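Data availability (excerpt). The following record was deposited with the supplementary files.
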Amino acid sequence: MRLSPKPDLIEHLPRLRRYARALTGDATRADDLVQDTLERALVKLDLWQPGSDLRAWLFTLMHNLFANQARTRRPQDAALDEALDIPVSGGQMEALAARDMHVALARLPDGQREVILLVGLEQFSYAEAAQVLGVPAGTIMSRLARARERMRQILADEPAVQLKVVK
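Predicted structure:
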């Protein structure tokens, strides 16, 4: 029996949800991924080392679950199609830019998307991201560089708004 107090998993929920939503592109799948992550964390709580970074451990669990689910369920084009149909009122360029970023992120390979989300969105260091993904820090840096370059290409190639020619 474990004598140390249980860690507070609840405080990490907002970041887990944000990362899951960015990974899956779908609120329902993101909620399922967070629930699966917390379930696995509770089952495997004895494997967590008190004093170590609980956040990194939870993100590692989530990454592994997402990778396992991605192997069995490929590809989810429906979420991408829905992102293209987001209604936007005139003059809201920020919403268009956010949509374009979402679409560009969805088009990245999983490994690059995971790195850009961990380092860029979740503010993980290269070492922390390497620990979460189980790869060397050099791999994180090269994936991040390739992801940034690919994002630039995607965003430069596609105009923000597809206008229909009216005669």
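Summary of structural features: The chain is about 65% helix and 0% strand.
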